[in-house]
Amino acid sequence: MKKIMVSLVAIAALVGCSKSDNGEEGTIVPNNYPKKITMKEEDGKILHTIEYTILDGKILSYTSQQYENGTPNAKKSINTISYDGNYIKEVKQQGGWDADKIETFSYKDGKLEKKVIKYNTSPDKTYTISYEYSGENLSTIKGEPIVTVRRNNGREEVEISRYQDFTYIRSGEQMVENIETYKLDEQGNKKDSSLETNKYTFSGNDLIKKEKTTPFQSITYEYTYDTSKKNINRNNVSTILEPNYFINGERSEHALKTKKRVYNGTTTEYEYVYEYKNDQLVKEERFKKKDSGNVLELTTEYEY
């Protein structure tokens, strides 16, 4: 059974507008935004549904329902969104795969500066992510360690995980992403550090190649696009809430046509087919390429 983890970023990525649509950051065009999204497996059984409540160009809430064998399961989440002006300030989630949580967002000069995720579970967990920019471009993401608080017989035990820093260096159509994971000793010095380097190649605003390298594996992704169609997954809201959107082919400017993944010498290829009605995307199909022909894996339907 496939599982799709839905976060706010995944939801925001489906907002159907761009800055030129309405001139306001963080808002959407209601008539262009799907009221319901349904994902189906290859046999046509429902895998996942998302339904939205929208008022005056803002998503006020959404409900995410997972399915097993075409039947709704207990992993249903209800998400409520609050705003500061046109910017999303807080998202409260009840239920779902990752239990109850609250995400809060703070901004500076129209860009996301910090995101804090607090899981209301036992034990409690808090995760903070900070963003830095060089001019208009993202330069650094600092993932502070997850702080886990366990309460036992009136005592609190605090556990701190690893730090993770992302840096981005761009030169023309090339970009390098360095990811350093580490801990700090009692004197504040780094220890147990590891480094991952990823390389990206762009054509305009479309990612065409991604090369991920670690001490244990090598993965290459290659993408092609239908440049006559805009990508519904890229818009004001998604690019604000996910500042490193550009490292994902599914967030490029144009509609994804093919994706090829080479993992330690093994190649997997996908093809994407779209159906439009009155210039609105109503269906997306993902096929996996095999020697016997293309095999349908996932269908996503949009209702407006």
Structure summary, number of beta strands: 20
- Class by SSE composition: mainly beta
Enumerate how many helices there are, as a single number. Answer: 3
SSE succession: HHEEEEEEEEEEEEEEEEHEEEE
Low-confidence spans: pLDDT under 50, at least 5 residues? 1-23
Describe the global form.
globular
Taking the sheet with the most strands, its summary is: 18 strands, antiparallel, barrel
Q: Round the mean pLDDT to the nearest integer and report it.
A: 86
- Taking the alpha carbons of the first and last residues, their distance comes to 28 Å
Q: Gyration radius, to the nearest Å?
A: 20 Å
Strand content: over 45%
Question: How would you describe what is shown here?
Answer:
With 304 residues, the protein is mainly beta. It has helices spanning 8-12, 19-22, 236-241, and strands at 36-41, 46-55, 58-68, 71-84, 87-95, 101-108, 111-119, 124-134, 137-143, 147-152, 155-160, 163-171, 174-184, 190-203, 206-213, 218-230, 254-263, 266-277, 280-290, 293-303. The chain has an 18-stranded antiparallel beta barrel. It is globular. The two termini are 28 Å apart. Residues 1-23 have low confidence and may be disordered.
Note the main attributes of this structure.
304 residues, mainly beta, 20 strands
Short description:
With 304 residues, the chain is mainly beta.
What is the fold's blueprint, element by element?
Layout: H1 8-12, H2 19-22, E1 36-41, E2 46-55, E3 58-68, E4 71-84, E5 87-95, E6 101-108, E7 111-119, E8 124-134, E9 137-143, E10 147-152, E11 155-160, E12 163-171, E13 174-184, E14 190-203, E15 206-213, E16 218-230, H3 236-241, E17 254-263, E18 266-277, E19 280-290, E20 293-303
Antiparallel strand pairs: 1-2, 1-20, 2-3, 3-4, 4-5, 5-6, 6-7, 7-8, 8-9, 8-10, 9-12, 10-11, 12-13, 13-14, 14-15, 15-16, 16-17, 17-18, 18-19, 19-20
